[in-house]
Amino acid sequence: MFIHFEKTISHIWIIFFSFILLSNFILSFIFIFTFILLISKIHLPEKGASMQILFIVTLILFSGFLLVSHKNVKSEKEFTVAGRGLSASGVSFVIIGTLVGGASTIGTVQLAYTFGLAAWIFTLFSGIACLVLGLFFSKLLREEEVITVSELIGNRFGNKVQKYSSFLGSFGVYIHIVAQFLAAMSIIQTVFSFGRFTSMFAVFVLILIFVVSGGIVSSSYVGRIKVYLLYSLMLLGAFIALLKQHGLVSLIELIPNKNMLSLFSYGKSKAIGDMFSMVIGVLSTQTYLQAIFSAKDVKTAKKGAFLSAALIPPIGIFGIIIGIYMRIHYPELAHNTTLVFPYFIKTYFHPIIAAIFMAGLTIIIVGTASGLTLGVTTNMYIDILKDGLLKRFKVKEVLKLKLIAFIVLASSMAIVLLGLDSRILDWSYLSMGIRGSAVFVPLFMILLIKDKNLLSKLSFIVWLSPVAYLIIALITRH
């Protein structure tokens, strides 16, 4: 079985590289064929087969529709900033489509299962960060007419700082992509009982489909669907948990540890550090800021940020209710808490509804991973590779971007393959902190200081900030 699967993987690699060189029409067909080929080589157990088949069909239909819908994205500008024509809702959908994923759903339920209300930190402070983005940073970012935030930093601090900031910011996003891999893999494992490697590769193929299908336009489209899916899934899940528990009061009364009702239940210094990391991380992540760059104008950019600030925090509350409910009734899941939310869906929803929601949750997480991959891809291409290594290759710019996206994803998959497992939100918070120290610090300095000569003299702060953050993170987490 394993040998046949290895041959299947080899065939898929060949198909993918052929795809890089072919037209968009053939590209779309090959991607859909690739995913069907991967699934067809894996034998489904009889028990729950209908749920598994429905899950696969839902993913294939959505992935195929996504590819066909955005096959006309042909230029670098369309791929990276949607021709700077996104509406307020489009901006919001890009932000939500990337920011709200495995950490906000599976990760929140997972952390709530262990620590309770502290799991709200991720979504609550994501919303606060979006509010700050709209109030203070949108005007600066949109008026600069740049594609990457590192470009803006480079315009003030110089080319070396731009590359340094871009590299470290991208490294921070790599870590968050790993978190999405872990979250999506937990769903695949729950639905199919697959092993780690098979689940990981299936997730890899899905993310790749999403990210190359249309760049930032695709991220906005996925984000729109994610908002509907998220609120339907999380609200219905919280309602079922409260109904089964006979209300919120009963849920609170049966909490194993009353300390779980505190935002600081896993440690005050660590919680404050995570709050800080969330705000500065959101304000320094390429994909979220790329949404602002893609807006029609400053006013539209602000409205998009404010809409995101309103929509994100409630999702965390719904996840906390589910997580605490599962802690009360299923303490045996403590050995693998990443499976808590998928197990809840599989247990409390009708198999058909569960399959659709499982597929929807996978789409939510994969959409986040694809948005993050797009951010890294844009940074690496615009800031480092466009006028360097890739300059000599005479192929379309979009193909170069898609090739970088493949390499970015393969690198993230390698980290998962090495077994560097952890709690999903731990990866996410560390990711936010690294991004913030490398990008937010210089961005904040640009916002406050208009004198370019003074900024140049203070560039040493930009160089030292990431080092200082890592030292503080190590001290507070151990």
From TrEMBL:
Gene3D superfamilies: Sodium/glucose cotransporter (1.20.1730.10). Its main location: membrane. Keywords: Membrane, Transmembrane, Transmembrane helix, Transport. GO terms for molecular function: transmembrane transporter activity. It is a multi-pass membrane protein. It comes from the Bacteria. PROSITE patterns: NA_SOLUT_SYMP_3. GO terms for cellular component: plasma membrane. It is found in: Membrane. The chain crosses the membrane at residues 12-39, 51-69, 90-111, 117-137, 166-188, 194-217, 229-255, 275-293, 305-328, 348-377, 398-420, 432-449, 458-476. Belongs to the sodium:solute symporter (SSF) (TC 2.A.21) family. This is Na+/solute symporter. The lineage of its organism: Bacteria, Pseudomonadati, Campylobacterota, Desulfurellia, Desulfurellales.
